[in-house]
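Ticket #4471: complex job returned nothing on first submit. Input attached below:
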Amino acid sequence: MALDHEMQRWSGFVRALRKEDKLVFDQLMDVFRNFASAVSNTTRPVLFEAMVMSVLLHQKKVLNKLEKMVVAVSKQSE
Amino acid sequence: MQFQSNQSNRRLRGWILDVYPSTPRQMNVWILAEHGQRLHLVDEFRPTVYVSDKENNLNSLFCRFFSDSNVDSVKFVEKFANPTDSRKSEVLEVVLKNYRKNSFFVRGVLQSGRYLRYRVHNCDLRHSQVYLYERDLFPLAFVEVKVTEGELEYWLLDSVKRIDYPVPPLKIARLSLELTKKNRLAAFNEPLDKAVLSCEGNEIVVDSGDEKDKLLQIVEAVHWLDPDVVLTRGGDSFVFPYLARRALVNNVLGNFILSRDGSPLVAENKQGKSYFSYGKTLYRAPTRRLYGRIHIDESNTFVLRESGVEGLIEVARCCCVPLHRAARSSIGTSMSSLQNFQAFKDGFLVPRNKHVGEAFKSAYALLVGDRGGFVYEPRMGIHDGVGEVDFSSMYPSLMAKYNISAETVLCTCCPDSSLKIPELGFHICKKRRGIVPKVLEFVVKKRQSYKQLAKETKDEKLREIYDKRQSALKWILVTCFGYLGYKNAKFGTVDGHMGVCAFGRNTLLKASSLAEKRGFRVIHGIVDSLWLKKEGASTENYVSLCEEIEKRLKLPLDFSGIYKWIVFLPSKTYPNVPVLNRYYGVKQDGRIKVRGLEVRRRDTPKFVDDAQMEMIKALSFADNSKDFVEKVPNALKVVKDYRRKLLNGEVPVWDLVVTKRLSKNLENYTQKVSQVIAGEQLKRAGFEVSAGKSVKFLFTSAKNKNYKRRVKAKELIQETTNPDVNKYLLFLYSAASNILSPLGYTPKQIKDELMGYEYVKFV
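Support reply: We reran it on our side without changes. The output follows.
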């Protein structure tokens, strides 16, 4: 509920986005939904803080994964 | 058999079958004697209410009661007037002459104190239950009774804690009717065609003579069979109101006596009750009683449906609720009776209204405290070798362990208590045990004993009995947490309710942390269950983990098995986001577990239900996720078969009937949704349709511009009625795609794939 409400607040921003950007925005929101339980457990009055933290965490996970892949590829090429 | 006065001072042994008040000072007690007789005893009973005064000055009231014609006696006594009181206070004990004047008297007292000064206690309890509470008895208790002049004296030879209690030999009969229907709907003006009464292998069919004869034959049959319990389907809403109406029409209402105590049926037009519970509007027909016998309407009972007669007896005994009431009432009502029973035992008075309000909280405290249980979003997709562990009765166990009750959370006696609710910081009493935890401790322990006995016994019948009893107790435990926060729960507390959630979240997080320390990955977690995975983990590893968690957290944790594979499904709205409680999987022992799919929904037509279950069974032969993918064609073959059956008209229309509940009265709907259309059809045909009732219908032409033709109510289906095949195909594809969505299937893809199979045939 709170998540949907927060996302609703960004509807103006989304409306002004181009189609390809809207898709990326939706992906970002999916990241947020994937961390919904952790977000609710932070109990922060400003939900946007938790949203940003979720996205940061997800990006770090993706970075770690890419880093591992790069290491593996570079080992293979050596 | 009525006990004769010359038989006074006689002692007898037996079970208490039923208790109900009749004349202003009398309580009727039906005893099922150990030698098989059914005895009607009458005891003196006068209701007692208590009055307390906020200003501690009850003298004027005492003088007033002294001359009150409704009052039999009045005196000062010491009692715990409120659940939160740690000391007894002086209250007035008022014995009334007539139980029927109870509410009139209470209103008078409250008005005289302008609804602020005086508090009246024990005034809204059922008299039959108070009669039992006061004597420390319970329904179906085995007792010895001494009949003295107008009074009964009891010796309880039983205990509510007993798990091996003897069940009385109840004579159970079933009554069903057939009407000479001119229309398709059963109506009160249709004459009776046939009545069937079956009991212990005897079957009496009443179908000869005119209607008057048939009605009198029913009376004879009931008296000849003399059942203790009469089971009906729709007895409250139709069978007995109908029989009473037919008896009235035939001028035999005065002789139409089915009860044991000689009172005839009443032909009154009582309205049922629509009520709202857990997001659903429900309907309950008024109770039709056969005094001296127990009438149970199978379509108006939750406990009997879930736990059978054994479970019903268990609830009646434990919660001290007469059988006919236990069958019909919600578990919450039984739960409050159990708490009232405990309050009586502990010397507490039961308040008329809940007094313990919610503590003041800042917005931030509410943000922190007012949350539910903790969940881990599932990792979407198919997983191999996942183990499931569940805290058994987590919330009730927490309530019992941490002493959570209205009178213990934020108590006034020990504000420095070290026992605090996490995150909220509210203190919990350490000096006294609350009524709610006392009650729950008893139920949790009793259920554990039944579970243990069911495991140990080799006797199949006994195992079934223990299972039904523990399942009935499970429902009490399931509802106890919600009931703690219920606005009318007299021993409930919103702060305690929040506290249970806080303890629950804490417990799940601690348990998952302990699991992760042992190398398990948390795949999913909901409130009291965890799905864990560790490469190569065996049953022993999981059991050892459960033992460690149980030892550390002091809460019972059960290992419920390892899944060969389990599928966590995505949200229908956001395909990249997982949802809780939408999964299915097969355990190593072959058991299938499904949550949140069509097979679990009540409104799913049997045809779709069967198709989806058969698909899951086709997939259940897979041993792992790789195998699962290989079995997908088999599952699609199931869909293909069901599609063929539907197209060839081989599916009976009854298997296509959809059931929906009306959440409001028909006139309050703004949209003509399918259940409203069907409801309107039924209403036009003379059927009673109200909020909370379920409506069954068939889609006949779902997209028809004339909304009246879109569906047909089940009761109005004729041989010429045809289903809307396309609508049901859509249901089928949707159910199939839900199962296979992790592999990227959509309803359209399912359809395309099936069309591909049958392309040659259909072109």
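Chain B has a mean pLDDT of 89. Closing as resolved unless it happens again.
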